[in-house]
Design brief:
The protein has 2 helices and 13 strands, in the order ββαββββββαβββββ. By secondary structure, it is of the alpha+beta class. It has one domain: tt1808, chain A (Alpha-Beta Complex), CATH 3.90.1570.10. The strands form 4 sheets. A 6-stranded mixed beta sheet has the order 3-6-8-9-10-11, sandwiched between helices. A 3-stranded mixed beta sheet has the order 5-4-7, with helices on one face. Strand 12 and strand 13 form a beta hairpin. The longest helix has 19 residues. The protein starts with 20 loop residues before the first strand and ends in an 11-residue tail after the last strand. The mean pLDDT is about 90.
Length: about 190
């Protein structure tokens, strides 16, 4: 007997995704995308170092107190999302969880935009993060060299700043440090 065409995807469907792809379950749909571009990966790695070192390890005069992860599986209700980076205040991190995913919504999420993911990141995933009460969302666009910041209020995200190029900025919720945005853009290294 054939399955109904509108069957909702589940976590188990992710096991069918080839290993060289990233799979998510978004609004009942299975989304499979190839590994990100070099430009995308560079921006995520640079942000991990710029934020993770002072906020996770309290190095370089940073405050510590956070757990920052690259591409964590986040189980948010019926959705399984894989943000490019996510951070939890240390006291909220689910250390005892033994599954592949984390069931506690992050305090901060960063999505690196690409032509294949921008629409999904800006619409469906943004709405899911808001409903899960993620406090801060960053949308980083390596092609246009911009970082858009959003803060949660009344279960919806509200813009709280746009930064770009070679600007130096203190980006919430990580305002104790200044980030040189030029460090995020792979194409600036080619100069």
């Amino acid at each position: 007997m054939s399955e109904p065409a509108n069957k909702k995807a589940t976590y188990e469907d992710l096991y069918e995704i080839p290993e060289n792809m990233i799979g998510e379950v978004v609004n009942g749909k299975l989304v499979a995308l190839p590994r990100p571009s070099m430009e995308h990966t560079y921006a995520a790695s640079a942000l991990d170092k710029r934020i993770g070192t002072p906020y996770q390890f309290a190095e370089g005069g940073g405050p510590g107190g956070w757990i920052i992860l690259l591409e964590p599986e986040s189980q948010l209700g019926e959705h399984t999302l894989v943000p490019d980076l996510a951070g939890w205040k240390r006291e909220r991190f689910p250390f005892a969880e033994k599954s592949n995913w984390l069931s506690v919504a992050p305090d901060w999420v960063c999505e690196i935009l690409s032509p294949r993911t921008a629409l999904l990141d800006r619409t469906e995933k943004r709405e899911i993060y808001a409903q899960a009460e993620v406090g801060h969302l960053w949308l980083v666009d390596p092609h246009n060299m911009t970082v858009e910041l959003y803060r949660l209020g009344a279960r919806a995200f509200h813009p709280s700043g746009v930064y770009g190029g070679e600007e130096k900025a203190r980006l919430e919720p990580f305002t104790e440090i200044e980030i040189n945005l030029a460090d995020l853009w792979l194409n600036l290294l080619q100069r």
